[in-house]
Design goal:
The protein has 374 residues and is of the alpha/beta class. The chain is built from 12 helices and 10 strands. The strands form 2 sheets. The chain has a 6-stranded mixed sheet, with helices on both faces. The N and C termini lie far apart (53 Å).
């Protein structure tokens, strides 16, 4: 089995990234799509040495990219000394298996890359267990495909008969199923503890505000700067935070204790299965009294990212919850008026979490929202 917990020598990876796009899409749009994948490669510790875009009605059933393109990649990988080939999509087990057999380096899709980044950033037992669970559950058929593929490649020794091989595979499957059950049990007990903690907070009359937003929008920076929670980890990386952290927020003339909860960042095309494994982390959001949607106002894809976050909130059945929009990184915005005009319909609070600007207004907005709710 491949080791997802220890990414291959981070920092030294040379990646070829590939996207299959519909024929109608123009080049600029296509390159924009690949930009996020390039950032993910960077977060993983690699550099993108080549971007390939292939126009196709739909991915090839056999190799995801067309077979001619796959041959080309085989050559390019050797010529350029690439150490990984990453597909900007989700490959089925057989597509993954066939490509892996052809290409002489690590092949992965968006799911696996995100999973490896998660593994790199996991700091608590809960996060590690959730990642392991996602890995076991969803990479499972793919891994068997790959193992079988390598066995075929080496093949011809005649020492292992097909029947024995199958028996071995079945035993491995059973073993993995046991592992999955054991992890689920452990997670359940951790979840019970966390849920107990939340109940206690509620009984004590604490109010919880969950910070949500696209990855890298500045959620942890806000928690750190506004609550003096010094151990919140911030970084110019995607998925820096994988677990919930709480800090208490002091609001003048407000009689109740307000807790601010930092959460995992959202991303477009977040593998739904991975998302499922992190659902318990997101309970802080589903149980919150108020949701603060942090938006990176300096980002070029601001609208798409707001949309992605809203869709995920809907999946979490949190779209009806009281919500406040916060435009962050205003210190980096050149045309402030334009941004304010474009997003006036959200009635946002504008801040710079880094420079601690707009905090008073944010606290007042939170307070007013609570008075509206209660
Ligand atoms: N200029 C500027 N940079 C900011 C601001 N807020 C955050 N940043 C930077 O944006 C980057 C991401 O910040 P984080 O707080 O780690 O973002 P996050 O939303 O917690 O990200 P994930 O945990 O990965 O989802 C860091 O480099 C921060 O220093 C801001 O108001 N202005
Ligand atoms: Mg964070």
């Amino acid at each position: 089995m491949r080791d997802y917990e220890h990414p291959l020598t981070p920092g030294g990876e040379k990646a070829i990234i590939i996207d299959v796009i519909p024929p109608g899409m123009n080049k600029r749009e296509a390159l924009e799509r690949l930009e996020e994948l390039e950032r993910l490669i960077d977060t993983f510790g690699g550099v993108t040495i080549l971007k390939i875009i292939q126009k196709r009605g739909r991915p090839s059933a056999k190799t995801y990219i067309g077979s001619g393109k796959a041959e080309e990649v085989v050559k390019l990988q050797k010529e350029l000394g690439a150490t990984m080939v990453v597909i900007n999509g989700f490959m089925k087990a057989n597509q993954f298996h066939n490509l892996t057999l052809m290409i002489d380096c690590e092949v992965m899709d968006r799911f696996e890359l995100i999973l490896k980044i998660f593994a790199k950033h996991a700091r608590t037992e809960k996060a590690r267990l959730q990642i392991r669970l996602a890995f076991l559950k969803y990479e499972f058929p793919r891994l068997f495909g790959k193992q079988a593929g390598h066995a075929q490649q080496r093949g011809g020794t005649g020492t292992v008969t097909r029947g024995k091989g199958e028996k071995l595979l079945e035993l491995k499957r059973e073993h993995l199923r046991d592992q999955i059950r054991a992890i689920e049990k452990k997670l359940e007990s951790i979840q019970k503890v966390h849920s107990g903690q939340r109940q206690r907070r509620k009984r004590q009359g604490f109010l919880t505000v969950a910070i949500v937003g696209y990855t890298n929008s500045g959620k942890s920076t806000l928690l750190k700067q506004i609550t003096h929670k010094k151990n919140a980890y911030t970084a110019n990386k995607l998925f820096a935070t994988l677990e919930t952290k709480l800090g208490s927020l002091y609001i003048e003339d407000f009689p109740r204790t307000v807790l601010l909860a930092d959460t995992i960042g959202f991303i477009q095309d977040l593998p739904p299965l991975l998302f499922e494994s992190f659902i318990t982390t997101l309970e802080e959001v589903t149980e919150a009294d108020l949701v603060l949607h942090i938006i990176d106002a300096a980002d070029l894809k601001i609208y798409e990212k707001i949309d992605t976050v809203e869709k995920i909130l809907k999946d979490l059945e949190c779209d009806k919850k009281p919500q406040l929009y916060v435009l962050n990184k205003m210190d980096m915005v050149k045309d402030k008026q334009k941004i304010l005009k474009t997003y006036a319909y959200l009635n946002p609070v504008t801040i710079s979490a880094l420079q601690k600007e707009g905090f008073q207004e944010l606290k007042t907005a939170i307070k007013n929202k609570f008075y509206e709710i209660f």
